Amino acid sequence: MHRRHSLLPALFTVCVLLTGCETPPPQRAPLPPSESDLDLLRSTKLCDTRKVFLEQHPGVVPHTQAWGSGQELRFLAEQSVSKGEESYFFDEDGTLVGTLFVFRSGLDLAPYKTLRYTLSQLKPSLEFYLTVAQLADRQNMASSTMYDTGDEKTTTRYLVLGDRKAPRLLAASFSIDPYVKLFSPYRKEFLDRLRDTGQQTGGQHLDTQGAEDKEPFASLQQFARGQTAQLAYCGTKNQTIALDAYQKASASGFTSQLWQAELHHRLGVSWESAGDLEKAKRELLASLAQRPNSPEVVNNLGYVYGKLGEKQNALASFEKAILMRPNYAIARFNLAEAIADANPKRAITEYETYLALTEGIPEEADRSALAQSRVKALKHQ
């Protein structure tokens, strides 16, 4: 597999659910073009429940099989509206988190002017080689390109064969962002689907030497489930599901130290939400033992220290987080809260710095109003 651009977005979303959590970056990168006149999802929407999905597909009985702890509903090409193989993936809570469409003979994109234009505007996220025995014309089909697009919470991927002048679509996937790693060419499960040719001969052969992601599927799936619940990717936060998912991810484990550290971080946030501050502290300290230079974890540990009454540890944590990232707005707010009684003059400075850093960010409206009221009160003491 030959990497050209980074395949995946940033591994982790840094905003967590503590009151003193970091907000999304003030300047959000422009989203890539995503318009398409190839409507594969049609009436189906990510985050639909399994019950709603089945109601939208009356008269068709999908093949049902396990997908880790969740379930896959699969339609063969001859029974699908798209004329491709369609798979719909539900987590164990019955929520649709991803879909995959595979066109084994390659779908000619010539009729889809809008999608072809969109693809022409996207930078390839990955290029690799494969041969597809079922294509009628195999000339110039050794090169394949992956394109990523989507919106704030979902990712769309197109695996395209051939050059830009005559592209053919081999596969398209749609997933909410926490699950995108499970629909990656670096995952054996994804590649096996492309190699699976049913009763036909031949198939896809991908050069993946040295590139395979071998993190346990169960761990990745539960981590994604936890993120989806904790960060409200499907509309509402569910702390109970988040804690359950992260505990299950911990039970199956990760091999990468980066994943292990972030899992400890997420568990710490979940235990804080559940009210078990000692477990929260233990998990956050475990995260820092593996990844000591994470200002988000240091800040969140400071918040837990504060709730435990360990004021000096809380203050030291906020100071350290700001030292690591001077423009860390939430840590400055937390520091101001921690020192307001003992050092009101500096607290005013920290509140005002926070307000300058978060100006115009809708997600910070409530906290900004609180900071403004704090400044006003401290100035009139």
Give the fraction of residues assigned to helices: 25-40%
What's the count of strands?
8
How many helices does DSSP assign? 12
How do the strands of the widest beta sheet line up side by side?
1-2-3-4-8-7-6-5
Gap between N and C termini, in Å? 65 Å
Mean pLDDT: 86
- Topology as H/E string? HEEEEHEEEEHHHHHHHHHH
Strand content range: 15-25%
- SS class: alpha+beta
- Largest sheet descriptor: 8 strands, antiparallel
Shape: elongated
- In the predicted model, the low-confidence regions spanning at least 5 consecutive residues are 1-18, 22-28, 136-141, 197-210
| Radius of gyration of CA atoms, rounded to a whole number | 24 Å
List strands and helices in order, with pairings.
Blueprint: H1 50-55, E1 63-67, E2 70-75, E3 85-90, E4 96-108, H2 113-121, E5 126-129, E6 143-150, E7 154-161, E8 168-176, H3 188-195, H4 217-230, H5 239-252, H6 257-274, H7 277-290, H8 295-308, H9 311-324, H10 329-339, H11 344-357, H12 365-379
Antiparallel strand pairs: 1-2, 2-3, 3-4, 4-8, 5-6, 6-7, 7-8
